[in-house]
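Lab notes, practical 5.
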Amino acid sequence: MKILTVDVGSTYTKLTAIDSDRRSVLGTAQAFTTIETDVMQGFETALALLKQNLENDNISDFNYDKLLVCSSAAGGLKMVALGLVPDLTAKAARTAASNAGAKVVNTYAYEISNAEQQEIYDINPDLVLLCGGTDGGNKEVIIANAHRLCAIDRQFTTVVAGNKSAADEIAEIFSQAGKNFVITENVMPVFNRLNIEPARDAIRNVFISRIIEAKGLNKIQAMAAAEIIPTPLAVLNACELLSKGTKSQQGKGDLLAVDIGGATTDVYSMASGLPTVDNTMTKGLPEPWSKRTVEGDLGMRYSLKHVYDQLPSHNPDDEKMREVKEWVELCSAKPDTLALPDSEEEKIEEFLGQSAVSIAVERHCGKFADVYTPLGLMHTQEGKDLMEVPTVIGIGGVLRNSRHPKEILKGALYSFTSPESTKPKNPHFYLDQRYIFASMGLLSYLDPELAFELLDKETVGLGKAGE
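Output from the prediction step:
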């Protein structure tokens, strides 16, 4: 059976041809995503290139039997999350949203103010995740926020995942206001215990109903064998599969993956994140084993100016930084710009890629702090400890197009300049050389054994960090 997977990204539309009988990837191709007109144009261009590549490999008359599609066109779904307290339900909301593939623009805690209502109006999100209170606990705040959301004159859908005792009243509030809403299970039914899967599934379903028409993907959806899912969710599925393995194939264990895109940089960790340093106490909400964070201000094209703004040096007298700024301005204006091999622009692109990796992984990982107790010096850890994670995988165009992907991935490493960060110390680096993680995440729904086999085969080792 021939399977074609399609990833409609914010910058490129990527195709992967798979032969399940031969158990191999036949080829890949990509074309610039045509968001402004019709995404079918980019798809058709990429498909023509794919067929040309296959003909060059003496594979003629490629006709797929099944089409599987994921998308993050124009950055995917914009989302805001509301919770009761910042360190608990607000954080649980962000975790559920990020793992579902949404781009979380902002989070709010407690009852939102008039100014925050205006801020949500200005953000104009596709989706709002409304949380708050454990089951049977505080319900006043989530009910008040339901009223305030209904007063915002925007057409977003609200996923309600809070105190079940408030569900009936909230349903009445949204129904009377004529607002779109979905009620699902509480993201934190019991204090300090996460339950993000129902919310993640609800967000995925809203994605399917909202983004298909908004991004012009309805034609591809009509051709597909299954519903389109968010690209980050497809990548998350692939990371989980590679880490856990299958019934007949052993996984790689704990890993960290960094996907550098045109609009965002996504970081995935498959690890418990428990402390590896003696005398350390964990602080805050427990971390999920499978975690994704999305950095909407870190991308290699649409968000490149934000990467530049966070660089440590902006000295106008520094000639190198002037060249970096000029390249950033060019790429921001023309997102399809590519650096030529062995050029200064290639070095700048790699430098910016390493910077995006460094910032994104530091935000994803946990942090240490010193605490003095009657028993002496102790440490607290908030977030995941990933210092001993043995595997770091690079995904994305800047890595695939680079002749030095390992140097870009070094941005993920622990640094003595940020001793509080729990970034990996000495992992093995791997590269998704043909950008198949999203493709294999799609394939995993159909044939997890084949998806794992191809992931393991196609993920190229780059050596240890210190080598």
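Observations recorded by the TA: The first strand starts at residue 2 and ends at 8. The CA atoms of residues 14 and 30 lie 4 Å apart.
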